[in-house]
Amino acid sequence: MRLAVGVGALALAAVFLSSPAAATATASPGGGDPAPTPTATATVPVEERATFAYGKHYRQRMDIWWRKDGVTRPAVFVIHGGWWSGGDKKYMTEVTRSYFQLGYVVVNINYRLAQDAPWPAQRTDTLDAIATVRRHFAQFNLDPDRYALLGFSAGGHIAAAVGTYGDGVPGLRGVVGISPVVSPRTAYEDGDEGADHEQRKLRKATIALAGGCEPIECPRIWSSMEVPLHATQGDAPMLSVHSADEFVPPYQSEMLKQALNSVGVAMNIRAVPGFVHSSPLYREPGVAESVQSWIIARLAH
């Protein structure tokens, strides 16, 4: 497998390639998807991995793994965690590889962090990344109407927020959250005086996500961040996985399940004994396999 373009090569240009070689492009007037302008050709391998831009900010980058074998495949979008203020797609490389090996097109997303832009920038970036890839579906042998999201911790919140955006996101077949913070308001309240270190840290992270604004000062922003408030019958089914005793407890996802079930959308919650969070939880015995099985079932037809 060949890395076609490094992130550094894309720092000043949003690119989509018709070959694995470097390219430049001009962004659209509305700041949307750029027009691809290939500048070189190269021998085309069967398997390809490259980094693309979906916006002008240096964080608006995504790694796409695909096969140039002419077979149309569903996709999995991977969204990293990191308290909305850290983390990077590079830490999701092994997860990305695992879904590529299962036969999917895989898109591993970076997004603007809270210090770059407050909510809803993170949801907007993910929606833009999805829309950009779907517009270029033929280039990646991708079925634009069969894809799933897999998010970790803060990335699980973003994935769930995308899954409940509007009246349903076209083509989205399922959303998985590993330790997803689906209720930042609950995390804020849980992190009050007497909470443990991780809960207090998460409280501060939710405030930063809201642009430094507390719930009483910015109720509209906090309502936008609160995933259960946005459930509609057009939303995709969801799966959440938590450790039973972690600092993002299963009852956060229970709130979302109740909201989704009330409008006829299925949601499953798995609670694993212990207290590990996010990626370490995903590596617990049987967790990755159960998530993969759920995604396979959602993308089968």
From TrEMBL:
The keyword Transcription regulation does not apply. PANTHER family: AB HYDROLASE SUPERFAMILY PROTEIN C4A8.06C (PTHR48081). One of its GO terms (molecular function) is hydrolase activity. InterPro entries: AB_hydrolase_fold, BD-FAE-like_dom, GDXG_lipolytic_enzyme. Residues 1-23 form the signal peptide. Pfam families: BD-FAE. Residues 62-260 form the BD-FAE-like domain. It comes from Acrocarpospora corrugata. This is BD-FAE-like domain-containing protein.
